[in-house]
Specification:
Layout: E1 6-10, H1 14-26, E2 30-34, H2 37-46, E3 51-55, H3 63-72, E4 79-84, H4 88-97, E5 101-105, H5 109-124, H6 131-135, E6 139-141, E7 144-147, E8 152-155, E9 158-160, H7 164-175, E10 181-182, H8 183-191, H9 201-213, E11 223-226, E12 230-233
Parallel strand pairs: 1-2, 1-3, 3-4, 4-5
Antiparallel strand pairs: 6-7, 7-8, 8-9, 10-12, 11-12
Length: 241
Amino acid sequence: MAENKKVLMVDDDLRMRELLERYLTEQGFDIKTVSDSKEMDEALKNDQFDLFVLDLMLPGEDGLAICRRLRSENITTPIIMLTARGDEVDRIIGLEMGADDYLPKPFNPRELLARINAVMRRHEHSPQTDSSEKQQEAFAFGDFTFDAANRSLTKSGENITITSGEFSLLKVFTEHPRQPLSRDRLMQLARGRELDVFDRSIDVQVSRLRRLIEPNPAQPRFLKTMWGFGYVFIPDGESSE
């Protein structure tokens, strides 16, 4: 998976950049590191990348602002945010801005590698390599059509921009319609890892998904909350009871 995959890391900690550049290069990635958003923008003028690693605390434009800007420009390249351990609010805001995952500092480089591989797997399933997606027909609900094989979501024929995190979660829901799914199960199916005790990322991703597909996100028709448990996807918008 790492072969020829280009990663752009934005972090003002030179020692951290050098350590991770060396480690990820050894793992087969083509990695470029920069110290701030200006250097990032210059790098983006000259090259395309498969994934961004953004530190939250940056001089000038911080990681949250960068994430928000990229998503507002409909750039769907996966983003992993690096946050200070314990800053749950910042992690939640990062996910709300469209980040695909986060990793609290300090961390072992192997943990970052695992997150990168997991995010890229979610982002890069293709009909040529994933037989289950190849066989899955497009899933229609309401005015929407979700085509996992082509990684597309349309409303009344109009394409809707969807991040890899939102795609993975909607794919899980369309594969398990009307089936109540706990937050732990959703994390396992969508991200391939266990839910941390205080991890609210699934709730944030559901909230983002509701803003894409619900006529009124405050009164969801399709993605119903099962209080104290998780969520259930009702494709025809009827009551789950």
